[in-house]
Amino acid sequence: MLKTEQLSLARQMDMVFKELQEELSGLTSGTVFVQIRNNMIGKFGIRHNPLSGRSGRFTDVKEGMTDGQQSSFRLMALESLKYKRRWTHGEISYEFAIRQGMVIVDATLESNYNMANLMIRSPRNAYAESSEQFFG
């Protein structure tokens, strides 16, 4: 059995879209998010756009993304990984909508860093000496 750390980030992203397939088939817009820690996807999901309601009822969404639209979306998500540089912790959000039968996607890549990790990895005097030239 494979462990998550043995899978590339692209393969993990492919697995995310396979898991979300049924949910995406009922949506025409929203945001897919993936949270990344140590280059492994942990939490992921979809933030739905607000449901429209009138007269005490919500209207049923009759249509969602087709298999072809989902495939295009997945390929764009995989393509966006090429823009992830150097960071290992963060979140990627894919805001999507169907417009004139096409999937429109805006990707936001967010890197996260931890100061405690930076202080552990770096020599103690490295930052003290460089800060003196700015503040000394």
UniProtKB/TrEMBL annotation:
Example GO molecular function: methyltransferase activity
Gene Ontology biological process terms in this record: methylation
Top-rank taxon, per record: Bacteria
Protein name: O-methyltransferase
